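Technical note accompanying the year-one report. For the benefit of new consortium partners, we illustrate the data format agreed upon in the data management plan: each record pairs a sequence with a structure-token string. No post-processing was applied to the example shown here.
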Amino acid sequence: MKIVFDFGGVLFHWRPPELVRRELPRRVGDEASARHWVQQIFQGYGGDWGDFDRGSVEVPELRERIMARTGLEAAEVQAILDGVARELQPIPQSVALLERLHRGGTPLFFLSNMPAPYADHLEAAHDFIGWFRSGVFSGRVNAVKPEREIFDLAAARFDSRPEELLFFDDLPANVDAARAAGWQAELFTDAAAAATALRQRGLMA
């Protein structure tokens, strides 16, 4: 069995409400305003941000789109765009699980909705990404989860039959899409639960 990890919310922290609180302190004063700006900026990962994830829009155009749509100032939008990289910090327990699997010889891969600039940043900043044999970032292949295309592309890149792949993702829609593509998949909640699922499958002692 080959194990495939998502990045944001699985191996790296991804907490958009905390992000907007840090980067837009004049705009965000409570949970309601945090939710508002998360929705305005990220649009449920559709819209402008979905295009960014897909690699069909680059940072200058994205910044202009968000400014025009939300009324945020250029410096505020840039603070959010810069803040994403600061938010994507490794989750220590998840990295420890990854290391355990790597040291045990388990074939590891990744599949992440990630705009290319942040993919570049993560690869440069974190040596443990070298533990993966291969991976797919959405922003480099012009396809995004939960679309079927990206799962088929990833299976081909990993030189694997879908049923050979066990995918951990924190979003139910992506887990369902992986299963629909013939993969095995588990909803990721935390590293301890993932380890339990791996032991139950006989994939980890």
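Partners are asked to follow this layout when depositing records. The longest helix spans residues 74-87.
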